[in-house]
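Standup notes
- DV: blocked on the single-chain target, sequence here:
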Amino acid sequence: MPEVDLVTLADAGAFVSHEHQSHLADSVPMRDWRIDGARSAFVYTDGAGAERAVRAHFVGTSSPDEGTWLWGWDNINGFPEPFVKQAERVRRLGERYAIREFTHAVLPLTDDLAPILVRAVKAVTGVTAHFSAPTGNGSTRAWLLLDDPVLALPRPTVARAVGVVTSALAGTGTVDHRRALAAWAQQRGATLTEAGEDVVELTLDDGSLQVRFDAGGRIAGLGRRLRATPRPPEPEPEPVAVVEEEPEPLPPPLQEAPEVLEPAPRRGLLQRLLGL
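- DV (later): unblocked, structure below
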């Protein structure tokens, strides 16, 4: 079985996390937001001035003032179980595979620890959008996963894949490019095949993208091929849960925003990518 550790999981979540955060920044205006922990919801005003409530999962807090990361599963604030359920899921996986960063409630904070942990959490949970919110307590920030069809990514295209790879390489600090690319393909429903020595090919709706790796396993070149007529979208694959559990109920409707939607389907990333 492949090694399962923080770096492995953070790499697996890197490209899809970068894509989803870029999508939120470019396409999902969020103004006048607030967190409703009692109802496991993140409430924001969209670009049309309408208030929307989406499911939120509390991951943890980072405090540069104190130099600490505190996991949400420690739950010192007594949040309801659905709000910390995904953080608890991470803790259980940490216990199963001896990942110390997932099982210690408080970790020493470094400049890049919070983003690394959040990318790893996305690989574990399959929820790939997040929001980092100031808490009003000095420099402390709360890190939340956001889970709702209204925030879903558009279908992947060749141009989108090129943008994801090139921009992510500049900013994610990814160690294993092969793992990050394979995880992105699985999360996004793209087909990844070997196309030669140190070359893989991504098959997408409107064509294909060849990705060449250097001797160190880093992405060194891209080549695209477009179809004259894009293929029709394929059905979404059946999700494979990392941990067997009952479907999570919807939070009670919010008075200010009663249209809380169904959560996005989970991807079975870990089982397919890491063989768990």
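- Follow-up: Residues 237-268 have pLDDT under 50 and may be disordered.
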